[in-house]
Specification:
- The strands form two sheets. Strands 2, 4, 5, 6, 9, 10 and 11 form a seven-stranded mixed β-sheet that branches. Strands 1-3-8-7 form a four-stranded antiparallel β-sheet, with no helix packed on it.
- It is built from no helices and eleven strands.
- It is about 0% helix and about 55% strand.
- About 30% of the residues are buried.
- It has about 110 residues and is mainly β.
- The radius of gyration is 13 Å and the shape is globular.
Length: about 110
């Protein structure tokens, strides 16, 4: 399984970005896709996840600002990020969990300038 993330960049405080992640390879029908992030000097943390059935989970710090969505036919997950804050600055990683195995993509940098 390979994951390709895109959409990161530099944005001002209060701005928006949309991340995308496409999964390819041997993907079965039931899996969780999500986004994690890692800021300099900090541990990687969960941002949001989405199951095949559409159940979503968000970190408290992004609730009401970020929205995760997915297109199962395209094996793609999106992260719409609004009202961005400097503390959202991090490398964002796409994750796919399938049959107990985690697959990670290369990260995409998101920088929020004040």
């Amino acid at each position: 399984v390979q994951l390709q993330a895109s959409g990161g960049g530099l944005v001002q405080v209060g701005g928006s970005l949309r991340l995308s992640c496409v999964a390819s390879g041997s993907i079965f029908s039931l899996y969780v896709m999500g986004w994690y992030r890692q800021a300099p000097g900090k541990q990687r943390e969960l941002v949001a996840t989405s199951t095949t059935g559409g159940i979503t989970n968000y970190a408290d710090s992004v609730k009401g600002r970020f929205t995760i969505s997915r297109d199962n036919h395209k094996n793609t997950v999106y992260l719409q990020m609004n009202s961005l804050k400097p503390e959202d600055t991090a490398v964002y990683y796409c994750d796919l969990t399938m049959r107990g195995v985690d697959y990670w993509g290369k990260g995409t940098q998101v920088t929020v300038s004040s």
